[in-house]
Request: fold
Amino acid sequence: MGTKHPEFTNAVIFDHPLIQHKLTWMRDKTTSYRPFRALISQIAGLMVFEVTRSFPTKEVTVQTPVEQALGKRLAGRVTVVPVLRAGLGMAEGILEVMPEARVGHLGMARDEETLEPAVYLQKLPMDLNAGPVILVDPMLATGGSASEAATILKDAGVDDLRMICLVASPEGLSRMAKDHPELTVYSASVDRQLDERGYICPGLGDAGDRMYGTV
Ligand code: PRP
Ligand code: URA
Reply:
């Protein structure tokens, strides 16, 4: 479903028609916050199938109404970490398909002048090394927020980390490759470039504002 990007080898891109169809609706500036929220959640739910493909499993035996059956369950405790605000919409879609996941929150706001991220909330499970962790934030622009988030998670003990975004910039992917070379970034698109305000072009605008109607 996802393919490795030829230039950014740390990125897996989803060219699935359903994901591209939904992403195009999200880019459309006439799409209002209600469908925008639904779409972001749906895309994350679709992407998580591929992202979890390599998750470790353990064999278990269950009793069916007929006989014993050998099955598999996820081996570790999965944690989803959305970067507020816009990551929340993606986390919702992931929890629809993986309701057993725990959720850690990272509140980060990008300074509009310096483009540096400021952390305003950090609420994470203690034993983050108990299983895989999925960092979610729809927009990878300069990569400042994602890089800082990955550093926080690694410092907190995460040893199996991957990231899901919707739209990545070449600049953001380069930054992640430099700062966190072991981390795979799953994205629905790699867009052309950043503009002078640090917005992704063509992008979809300010994801948090579009999601919550605060434009
Ligand atoms: C957006 C987005 C990322 C960040 C990306 O959040 O959701 O967290 O910007 O930019 P960067 O790669 O240059 O760091 P924002 O700071 O606008 O907060 P919001 O979701 O609350 O609007
Ligand atoms: N954050 C957003 O929400 N959109 C961008 O284009 C860049 C950063």
